[in-house]
Amino acid sequence: MNESKRKLLAWNEIPMGGYITEPGNAREYRTGDWREGKIPVLNKDKCNNCLLCWIYCPEGAIEREEDGIKINYFYCKGCGICCVECPVKAIKMEEE
Ligand code: SF4
Ligand code: SF4
User: Fold this and answer.
1) I need a labelling partner for 9 at 20 to 30 A (CA). Which of 16, 31, 72, 82 fits?
2) 61 in ligand 1 pocket by Cβ < 6 Å?
3) Per-residue pLDDT tens digits for 8-53
């Protein structure tokens, strides 16, 4: 639609987004569906387990494991913050 013809909506005209129907149901939202072409790929050999990516990931998609970290692609939205923050460049954004 032409930008100049788009009707600006008031806050109460905007369709509802994430409904909270019961406690904890945000776990069911597959935020991984928001990715648009790029996906973070971990190089375990470079990773020193500093956990900065775990702290910075806005989706909580970095999971801690016995032997390091794992990226949960169900929640990963492909924002690339983990890739930027990793001090040893162990995470690379690649075409999905
Ligand atoms: S790209 Fe990295 S920081 Fe962004 S959601 Fe995925 S795992 Fe988290
Ligand atoms: S920030 Fe990089 S080095 Fe640190 S845990 Fe994440 S991937 Fe590994």
Assistant:
1) 31
2) yes
3) 889 888 877 767 788 888 888 899 999 999 999 999 999 999 999 9
Pairing of strands 68-71, 91-95: unpaired
List the residue whose alpha carbon is closest to atom 4 of ligand 2: 50
Q: What angle do CA 35, 41, 46 make, to 5 degrees?
A: 150
CA of 52 from ligand 2 middle (Å) equals 6
Compute the mean pLDDT over every residue in the chain, rounded to the nearest whole number.
91
Q: According to CATH, what is the number of the domain 32-96?
A: 3.30.70.20
User: Measured in angstroms, how far is the CA atom of residue 1 from the centroid of ligand 1?
Assistant: 31
Residue type, 38: K
